[in-house]
Amino acid sequence: MERTPGIRPRPSFWRQLDAAARLCFPLATTALLLILLAAPLSLPGQAELQPAVALSCVFFWSLYRPASMTPPMVLLIGLLADLLGYAPLGVDVLVLLLAHGLAVRWRRVLTRQVFVLVWVAFVGVAAAGAALTWGITALLTFTLLPPGPAVFQTALTAASYPILSTLFIRAHRSLAAPEEA
User: Fold this and answer.
1) Phi/psi of residue 147, each to 5°?
2) Cα 140–Cα 59–Cα 103 angle in degrees, nearest 5
3) 133 CA to centre of own chain
4) According to the 3-state scheme, what is the secondary structure of 77-108?
5) What is d(CA 118, CA 110) in angstroms, rounded to the nearest whole number?
6) b/e for 111-145, b at 16 or more Cβ within 10 A?
7) First CA to last CA across the chain, in angstroms?
8) 153 within 8 A of 48, measured Cβ to Cβ
9) 10 Å Cβ neighbour count for 83?
């Protein structure tokens, strides 16, 4: 069968389903991880892991698959994190949307760098996110909060990124479209 350039056969139902699954994978895995961390698993630091996982997932997928991690998807993840977590409603949404914006903006530079430089950029985003969460929470509660939890949150988020990104890199490579592979 001779193929004419620019003309492709209509994708079958299974190809469309496969494309939808590839597109929704980052949102689905992030939501699943957040729900698992909200379950009573008796893990040490389980409540603190939730914002760390959310920020790591959003930053990674926004950087490497921005078409699969759009602002509306980030908004949904932020709402889920706010509803499952302990921060005031809207704080996680704001932090995740800002992290998404920074990742997309820095995408062309960071995707060409070695992992350590990407991680350093992420640590800066995590520190800014923890500081923003601390500041907004202090403003909303009219209380000067101790900075220790924000520092711990930054360290935990920074430590979680290499672990999660190792898993996500493998998933990202397997999610490459058949035409890209």
Assistant:
1) -80, -10
2) 95
3) 16
4) HHHHHHHHCCCCCCHHHHHHHHHHHHHHHCHH
5) 6
6) eeeeeeebbebbbebbbebbbbbbebbeeeeeeee
7) 23
8) yes
9) 11
DSSP label of 10: P
| 140-149 contacts at long range (C-beta below 8 A, 24 or more positions apart) | 140/88
Report DSSP state, residue 144: -
pTM of the model: 0.85
Residues recorded for the chain: 181
The pair of structure tokens assigned to 59 is 């930053």
Distance separating alpha carbons of residues 123 and 146, to the nearest angstrom: 21
Q: What is the pLDDT of residues 51-82, one digit of tens each?
A: 999 999 999 999 998 988 999 999 999 999 99
Q: Beta strands of the chain (E only): which ranges?
A: none
SS3 content of the chain, % helix, strand, coil (to 5): 75, 0, 25
Per-residue confidence at 41, pLDDT binned at 50, 70, 90? confident
